[in-house]
């Protein structure tokens, strides 16, 4: 059985805690975090503390914190020759100090009170040596069927790609919701379209799945859309994205 200490109390830490709690082959020995109120979420089933001097012994220490806090917190860990990993998509494992280091990056969007099926979540791992990589592979396999050994450069590229497909896309949903609200329409009318758009790329490359006025170079429709938009920010986004689609498909038009 692998034992872990989880450092952090935010969304990623909570989701990892819930997932590991369901694994018979993993023991969560402790959760540590500075937010004492947030720590209450974990106290019924494991030891909690805000004092880094009270860290218990474990096989793996997982830092599930914001990118800016990773280096600072790793320096607080009074450990020797222990495997310490972080969950960031964009921070190198060299930001961890004084111990054996690695990365345990679950590629998913995590929101409070929304349960995740970790069996389908890709977990990207990296370590300084093969022995620690094997330990992380074993740990990741307790949660997911999708375990990938990737380099720091690949992880950065993957994180950047994730920002496009998740964060930027969700912002488009926010804008669409605002437009619907301005015209007394329910955003829910768009949900079947959103589902079909995401389901479609399971069967074909995104390049082939593209549709819409910019894909057809339908300038008349695009001009009408721009006139309908009230916000300069929305007009700029619409124009920028339409121009990008036009350039992507200009040879086929």
Task: Characterise the protein shown here.
The structure is a single chain. By secondary structure, the protein is α/β, with parallel strands linked by helices. Strands 3-2-1-4-5-6-7-8 form an eight-stranded mixed sheet, with helices on both faces. The protein is built from ten helices and eight strands. The protein is elongated. It has two domains: 2-150, NAD(P)-binding Rossmann-like Domain (Rossmann fold, 3-Layer(aba) Sandwich); 154-249, Orthogonal Bundle (N-(1-d-carboxylethyl)-l-norvaline Dehydrogenase, domain 2), CATH 1.10.1040.20. The model has no long low-confidence stretch (mean pLDDT 95). Helices cover 46% and strands 15% of the residues.
Summarize, please.
The chain has 253 residues and is of the alpha/beta class.
What low-confidence regions span 5 or more consecutive residues with pLDDT below 50? none
Proper CATH architecture of the largest domain:
3-Layer(aba) Sandwich
Number of domains: 2
Radius of gyration: 22 Å
Number of helices: 10
- The proportion of residues in beta strands is 15-25%
Can you tell me the CATH topology of the largest domain? Rossmann fold
Q: What does the main sheet amount to?
A: 8 strands, mixed
Whole-number average pLDDT?
95
How would you describe the shape?
elongated
Structural classification: alpha/beta
- The CATH class of the largest domain is identified as Alpha Beta
- The CATH superfamily name of the largest domain is NAD(P)-binding Rossmann-like Domain
Distance between the termini: 59 Å
Number of strands: 8
Helix-residue proportion:
40-55%
Instruction: Please list the strands of the largest sheet in the order they lie side by side.
Output: 3-2-1-4-5-6-7-8
Write the element-wise H/E pattern from the N-terminal end onward: EHEHEEHEEEHEHHHHHH
